[in-house]
């Protein structure tokens, strides 16, 4: 079995161990980040949708930073939205606070019916900085 090079953000390792998954894995010059939701440190959701999106991005940024990346290193994004017809505009109003300048990463948006009590989730693939010369 291949050894996984796992990245844990500060203060959240217990949450990932309890739920039995890795927050991110480094592999072949890339960082594969598990879906991040707007959870507080105890795992509970932020009640306000915009705060939930901001917290999801902050949780994502903590993982990126721990791996030596920023959102500028992100090349592919997948977002999951519960009831996107109702929530997309409110969510996408928050995104520019974190997204950065063009060129933007690729994006796939998926409407879902359930996200474990959350309304928004974001997962990304980033190019690790030491691998950008490849």
From TrEMBL:
Pfam families: Ribonuc_L-PSP. InterPro entries: RutC-like_sf, YjgF/YER057c/UK114, YjgH-like. It comes from the Bacteria. Gene3D superfamilies: RutC-like. GO terms for cellular component: cytosol. GO terms for molecular function: deaminase activity. This is Enamine deaminase RidA. The lineage of its organism: Bacteria, Pseudomonadati, Pseudomonadota, Gammaproteobacteria, Pseudomonadales.
